[in-house]
């Protein structure tokens, strides 16, 4: 087996799309730009391209580091690189920041060319279908007519599925990891509580906080703390924090006492400094709206009739946000259409975040699947 290495120093790239994007909401963007990164080399036949779709708080920076910042490691650097499961010595890998994001692609903090001011609350709601269409425009820009594979975890896995429905001829393989065919009522509820935390922050100003030179920091911090709890498992929190006290004894007050409280507040504070509140609202709404079976009377098997790709579907035992049962729903719908499907339920204590980790057998499984893709 080849030794795994980093892709090294990487540089974001930008593309301006001047073709209007008709959104599912009925609104449109006359033009927009996307920020993306690439790793590896596109072969002469343009047949070795892989698209990585990011989850709620992800972005285009999948692997490698930025010059002069050794801590700026890509969010899936353990998965993508030379000799890694998604091997950049074989594949040309693309990571893109979705529309509505806050890491360089057109989003709420961008300037609306119609007004000369930041979009703010006027930025339209975007869906997984809209992201797929924008990603297809990026593929056209790069001269890619068909992807060897489209890969994503969580919300990224939903995008991978949508690609196989909207562009069945353009996807040979889809890797759907820790995903679901739609959100449960409980998951929608979690998202709404997070949005309410942001929208009721007095510094939110109806989404136009940019004009007031402020941030709804408290709301975004609470939203992230809530979300982070759902990404972990009870076992992982017990193993890492238990009921450990920061000072070894109770203080009989309401400040931070338990280590888990300290950890969550740290995660919330860090996130509030890095992410845009309006983007968080948009990303959670895209999660809520994803439901390919809705147009088929709730029949997921009927929704997948258009798909032609081969699939790898992966779930994790401790993921209670997108449980293995949800992945099994996807597998059944694919098998009902006699598609080629590989399925694995990986034992892991890391909860939903398992797809970002390296639990036993997970990376070996992805490596084995990717190694069998011909280019």
UniProtKB/TrEMBL annotation:
- In which residues is substrate bound? 224, 353
SUPFAM superfamilies recorded: alpha/beta-Hydrolases
The site annotation (Important for acyl-CoA specificity) covers 321
Subcellular locations according to the entry: Cytoplasm
Q: Which GO terms describe its molecular function?
A: homoserine O-acetyltransferase activity; homoserine O-succinyltransferase activity
Read off the PANTHER family from this record. Answer: HOMOSERINE O-ACETYLTRANSFERASE
Q: What is this protein called?
A: Homoserine O-succinyltransferase
